[in-house]
Amino acid sequence: MSNVPGDLKYTSSHEWVRAEDDGTVTVGISDHAQDSLGDLVFVETPEIDRAVEAGEACAVVESVKAASDIYAPVAGTIIDANSELQDSPELVNTDPYGEGWIMRIRIDDPDVLEELMGADAYENLLAEEGED
Amino acid sequence: MLQRTPLYDRHQAAGAKLVDFAGWEMPVNYGSQIKEHEQVRSAAGLFDVSHMGVVDVSGAGALPYLRRVLANDAARLSTPGQAFYTCMLNEQGGILDDLIVYYLSEGRYRIVVNAACREADLDWLQQHADGFDVRVRERKEMAMIAVQGPQAERCLGQAVDARLESRLGALKPFRAVETGDWLIARTGYTGEDGFEVMLPDRTAADLWDHLVAAGAVPCGLGSRDSLRLEAGLCLYGQDMDTTTTPLESALGWTVAWDPEDREFIGRQALAQQRADGVQRRLVGMVLEGRGVLRHGQALQSESGAVGEVTSGGYSPVLGQSIALARIPVGDDGPWTVDMRGRALPVRVVKPPFVRNGKAFID
What we know:
The complex is a heterodimer of chains A (about 130) and B (about 350).
Chain A: E1 9-10, E2 15-19, E3 24-29, H1 31-37, E4 40-44, E5 51-52, E6 57-63, E7 67-71, E8 76-81, H2 84-87, H3 91-94, E9 103-107, H4 119-128
Antiparallel strand pairs in A: 1-2, 2-3, 3-9, 4-6, 5-8, 6-7, 8-9
Chain B: H1 8-13, E1 17-21, E2 24-29, H2 33-42, E3 45-48, E4 53-58, H3 62-69, E5 83-89, E6 95-105, E7 108-113, H4 118-127, E8 135-138, E9 142-148, H5 152-159, H6 162-168, E10 176-179, E11 182-185, E12 194-200, H7 201-213, E13 217-218, H8 221-230, H9 267-276, E14 280-287, E15 298-301, E16 306-315, E17 320-328, E18 335-339, E19 342-349, E20 354-355, E21 358-359
Parallel strand pairs in B: 3-13
Antiparallel strand pairs in B: 1-2, 3-9, 4-7, 4-8, 5-6, 6-7, 9-12, 10-11, 11-12, 14-17, 14-19, 15-16, 15-18, 16-17, 18-19, 20-21
Helix pairs in contact in B: 2-8, 5-6, 5-7
């Protein structure tokens, strides 16, 4: 059973979103996502100051198994990306909700966060997708 | 229902991630593919390869039969225990499978075939047995365990009895020793020293446990794939299949042209292709930048010629992506790969990429 922290929001494409106090969000991929991908070998993070739409592909993770797009969970502007992942992509595997964060977004409309899944809904999604 | 090997319980207990591989429920990793890869390069890893097909070919006609159905010449196997790698071809020279043949004793051979090909291979082998005094028998009750890496000899030595241990050191690459219903071969698919042990299902878990106790670490099919790719070894179904010949797959060295009067299946087509000039070849490639080459990606030369990545992946030893690729003969590039819509430069190299745990390319 993968780890689904209760204080985060989630997307159906397996990103997690943490609302920070300053009106920004931090984004990464869930424990379930990193486990499905296997060892990560490259992470391509988005450019700072890029404007993104909700659902827009803006980062790529390459694992031993496959390449996967990471989608912006909310519309906004990229204000930071995790440069540690350049040399240490495995942080996404070892600490997906902490040091393995991928990007930070200044959110256009904070209300949209309420539209994302909570932990319970995400756990239900994982159960539906057949995780034991 | 997927088939399970006699080691299935061991894989579950060790926390393996199990996947469907050619109809078998097999471990792809036990946590980290890269750690397992590094374990084999630096110490010893343990693989359950019981899904592979073990087929015994016996009878007074076994040798002439194998000389007919295999592109390499079984007459070259003169000493019991000797083995070689070969392709089995159709009449068009297309590769039906690649396999290892072990010469056990006069009139007794064992071949080991790919899991995905075993049924088609057996049909083919039976079909072509007509007219030969030969018996083709699949040994479904056999398991197969590979222990690979610089510490493989020590681990296997500790896992078997003293009488056997003393014989391992003397075993040369591509040699095997038959002892009771076990066959211990110094072969593998990782580019490292190591052994493959064929043994009855009922004894497989016991050997597995002894190997783990000796320090060999269970490794999944994921690392097996990245290890063979670094070693420059072809994977059937990706790098070659019935639409490609050995000459187009960097496997010309496995075709025994001499003696000229040996009419193996596919010989005429291969000879014709050789006379006409081979148009395509299989090469190694390295991606200079970040990203991972993958099976099926399109390649383009400055000249406009096209090619295709047949096997791609990440090389833990090189820290970059490597591939096997099929390109036209005589086009020196430079080549680029289409990676998700971007053209990235790749460099053509001669495999293996890694030897003895270290980078082997410039």
